[in-house]
Amino acid sequence: MDSYYVRFVVSDEPHFLESCSLCRKTLSLNSDIFMYRGDMAFCSQECRQEQIESDEKKPRRWRKASSSSSRSKNSVAGKTVWTETLVVS
């Protein structure tokens, strides 16, 4: 499939505006493209909304998992202090 977008870097990976980020339907020049987070293109509002809802669920699962495993409770001068550790690489 020939792309109608100019490519500056040779790559086997398709340009992000060639297909829907969710359903992989080919995006055409004559149709609306619905963007999300700057580099995710979608063929419809429904596909875009499904991705948004999926992304909104991810942080909630992370918070629940991390809060139960990495929290510790310390007592300082009669007050309870909660501490957490976050490792980023």
The structure class reads: alpha+beta
| Overall spatial form | elongated
How many helices does DSSP assign? 1
Mean pLDDT: 75
Which range does the strand content fall in?
Answer: 15-25%
What can be said about the biggest beta sheet? 2 strands, antiparallel
Q: How big is the Rg?
A: 21 Å
Question: What string, H for helix and E for strand, traces the elements in order?
Answer: EEHEE
Helix content: 25-40%
What is this structure, in a nutshell?
The chain is an alpha+beta fold. The protein has 1 helix and 4 strands.
Describe the structure in your own words.
It is a single chain. The chain is of the alpha+beta class. The protein has one domain. The strands form two sheets. A two-stranded antiparallel sheet has the order 1-2. Strands 3-4 form a two-stranded antiparallel sheet. The longest helix has 25 residues, at 45-69. Strand 1 (34-36) and strand 2 (40-42) form a beta hairpin. The chain is built from one helix and four strands; from the N terminus they run E-E-H-E-E.
